[in-house]
Amino acid sequence: MFVEEKKWAVARNIQRYQRMFGRRKFLGMMATGVAGARGSWAISAEAGEAFELPMLGDLHFDRLEHHDFDWMKQAHPGDVKQVENYSRVTGEWSGKLLEVAGQRVKAARAPVPFVLQLGDLIEGLCGSPERARRQTTEALAWVRQANLGVPFAMCKGNHDVTGPGAAEVYDSVLVPFLNQQLGGVDGAAYTRSAGDTLIVFFDAYAKGSLAWFERLMAERPPRRLIFVIHPPVVPYNARCDWHLFARQPAERERLLQMLGKHRAIVLCGHLHKYNCLVRRTETGKFAQLAISSVATDPEAKPKDERRGLAAYGPDLVTLEPKHSPETEAARRALLEAERPFIERFEYADTWGHALLRITRDSIQADVCRGLSKESWRSWNLSELVG
After folding, report:
1. Which domain holds residue 96?
2. How many domains does the chain have?
3. Distance, CA of 20 to CA of 44 (rounded, Å)
């Protein structure tokens, strides 16, 4: 971007925030810091360090022309129908859900630093670096055209880096987009902070991410931690071997203890289901909230609802009886081993978005089904972790 273009972009952002918050509040925000600098954004003293985050789960932006189907039929034959479905969902529903996120920004009662997306922005599996670049470029154009009114922040999902050339395109196209949106981003792992709240965007698909997180917590221990990651940290349904470090118990234990110590709020996607749970560790407990934004039932009518500690256990594998039957015994064992550490549990098969309201004293999450902006589930996440 040329110097004059940068000046124009800065002026445009200043005008936008003045319109959103009023000139007086905007000047108060500027007095407390510059948005994007050193991984922070400004929160006005008048707002009491309060802010809101519209949150979207997996989106899997896709179009049929993004794929080499001859390659797919050979390399990923089981994903062909999935690509066809995601292409349909992109055309029929995903744009409408982005509009809802934009409406949330306009109706916000506190500053909105960005719209948060939990990974798998795109479907991937394109078959060539050229097609991967086209899909990513079109997805980012789609986000820009939504005119959300604030930046767009996301963590890395597995589909974002799946297929020939996808990982390289993520680094060369998507990371620069995030840096353009947020400032100070040079990779898939980064942080944002406001007051005493630290938001960590964790790269679940890169070696060294756990060590990076450990150093971060040692150098910059937060009073309040929001941990944004694509796959869940705690298993919660039939695909209970799809959580982070599922086959690396030592690494998983290190992560769990850190999350417990800092009473983290974990936000995740990946399994395309709603879940809220509390997990106990030796150092403390943390909460995990998962949502999906991939449209299924147009009315987003919840299915397979489960609630209460009695609902958490090996029988969760029956939610998807056709999923990997040869691993059922192992998956049951994983859930049985996890059960003693679960303090609260809720699950449903539904889609939509969530709105986080962060104040000095609490983190409130309202989960909404489909395109509705009415709360279906409401949690005081800070209260859950004490």
Report:
1. 37-384
2. 1
3. 13
